[in-house]
Amino acid sequence: MQYIELGNGIPSHNTMQRVMGSIAPEYMQNVYQKWNETVNSNEGEALKKTICIDGKTMRGSKSKD
C-alpha cells in the first residue's frame, strides 16, 4: 500500500494544528537537525533525488553547482 487509509477522511486544518501544536519545539528541532545532517551527508544524495521539498529538482530549476 502506497498511502495510509484515513477512515474518517483527511484531517481538518484545526486537527492538524492541534497535533502539531502538541509536539514539543525542542523535539521538532532535534528531528530537523538530524534530518538536515542526513540530507547533507553522502547518504542524503539519494534522498535529494527522491524527496522534492520545494519542487525545484522536479522542475529542473536547480543550479548545476
Range of strand content: under 5%
Count of individual helical segments:
4
Instruction: State the major sheet.
Output: none
End-to-end C-alpha gap: 37 Å
What proportion of the residues is helical, as a percent range?
Answer: 40-55%
How many strand elements? 0
pLDDT below 50 for ≥5 consecutive residues: which ranges? none
Report the principal-axis shape: extended
Give average pLDDT, whole number.
Answer: 79
**Which class do the helix and strand fractions yield?**
mainly alpha
Structural Rg: 16 Å
N-to-C SSE string, H for helix and E for strand: HHHH
Annotate the secondary structure layout:
Elements: H1 13-21, H2 25-39, H3 44-50, H4 56-59
Q: What is the gist of this entry?
A:
It is built from four helices and no strands. The radius of gyration is 16 Å and the shape is extended.
What does this protein look like?
- With 65 residues, the protein is an all-alpha fold.
- The protein is built from four helices and no strands.
- The model has no long low-confidence stretch (mean pLDDT 79).
- The chain starts with 12 loop residues before the first helix and ends in a 6-residue tail after the last helix.
